[in-house]
Amino acid sequence: MNPERQVDYWVTLSARDIGTADILMKADRPLEALFFAHMGLEKALKARIVRATGEPPPHLHNLSRLAEASGPGIPEDVLDFLAEMNRFQVHGRYPLSLDYRPSKEEVARCWPRAREVRECLIRTS
User: Fold this and answer.
1) 11 vs 2, 6, 21, 33, CA distance in Å?
2) Which of 10, 25, 29, 106 lies most in the core, judged by the most C-beta atoms within 10 Å?
3) In the structure, what pLDDT confidence band is assigned to residue 97 with cuts at 50, 70 and 90?
4) Spacing of C-alpha 79 from chain mean position
5) Domains in the chain, please, with CATH?
6) Which DSSP string corresponds to 88-116?
7) Residue 64 above 80 pLDDT?
8) Mean pLDDT value across the chain
């Protein structure tokens, strides 16, 4: 495994997922957008893991566990946000109801923060 190629791979997929989330936000599909934002964060963390360890990342979706595996240096407020974003991967995969939608406040808070946190994770990977 070439670690640099793997980092580039995860960073590219992360950018693609955030781009998809952006399209979904514009289409007024916030749950799906936040699901893709979660996947973008997941892949940014996987890039950090490869950079830190030189090994392939674990097959996990839990952002908190991936952050832990990526090593030290992630600020506490970012770790808290990652933990909060985990619910969107669960709701996105297994909606409790077809009518579930995140509140406007959640979307207004989480969407821009997800983009910001992704950029931070990419810069430090």
Assistant:
1) 14, 9, 15, 18
2) 10
3) low
4) 12
5) 3-123 (1.20.120.330)
6) HHHHHHS-S-TT----HHHHHHHHHHHHH
7) yes
8) 93
